[in-house]
Fold this sequence. Notes:
The chain is α/β, with parallel strands linked by helices and about 375 residues long.
Amino acid sequence: MDDKLMLMIPGPTPVPEKALLALAKSPIGHRSGDFTKVMADVTDRLKWLHQTKNEVLLLSASGTGAMEAGIINFLSKGDRVLVGENGKFGERWGEVCDAYGINAERIKAEWGKPLDPEDFRAKLEADTNKEIKAVIITHSETSTGVVNDLETINRHVKAHGALIMVDAVTSLGAMNVPIDAWELDVVASGSQKGYMIPPGLGFVAVGPKAWEAYKTADLPKYYLDLGAAKKAIAKNSTPFTTAVNMVMALQVSLQMMQEEGLEQIFARHARHRNATRAAIKAMGLSLFGPDDCASASITAVAPPESAPAEEIRAIMKKQYDIILAGGQSQLAGKIFRIGHLGFVCDRDILTAVSAIESALQQLGHNSFTPGAGTKAAIEVFSA
């Protein structure tokens, strides 16, 4: 059936009808008084979502663009940094550093496991000359569904004095990221995740310590110059032509989020994570990553050889118009990922779980009682 596609991936995520209608409006001038009013409202709401009083800068870019901007505006060529790598996106930030001549030292963990905060503590405490300028961390590793202990790692960074730079692309708007309370210096995210709108906007929250570093940072930048973005946002504008209708959709989605409330948003995502993981276990499948560091945004599943990940995904798409994400890099074909991020409700989880049960039975995976996964999810929702 046409137009019944259901996205259950960690981005892009489903978009509410109100936001879609905002996208469909005729554009207005990005230098007009009407758009200035929209930007003023959006700026205030972004500060609420980010739990900060500082600037949240808006870029017409993906989450990768926002993260690259967050790195290059506050560092200089040759700077020594620590980059946490336990998945595809942690690796990406190391590659960005390499591209700009930043001396990136990787602190690694096996994919599917969290970074060890003690590894960062040891490196930082050993740096008595304070040569380490920044620590770059992926909060929710999208490729594996694992959450890193940002709060603990950040405490070690604060004790050292380096900057903390955070990829919060699949955690901002889904999990608690109290920027001011934790004194996070640079936090990047993207519109197609917890913000509930399509890809196209990136966000960078910047604290005062990072702005001090900006004064001496020497890496080349123009379109991604956050200093220019800061000057523009003070006038409720952007330095270049922005994605006007995306900002109008963002205004709508942020209003919806405020009506729901931060604590309720976090609780909803945690409930969906718990229901999904309970259902997967009840179906006799293995979860990729332990419960104690499971993302509230993505659940990664390692199915048995009798029910290959790509065959499950193919049935889900062909028969049920439900899109699941596959594995990335060395995990390609080995796992599938269920996104429960953004504009997702209990009904969506139950629909996806029951369709996965059907796909497993078609592939001959009969080591569970039919309906067990759905029952397990319902029990979580009924608790």
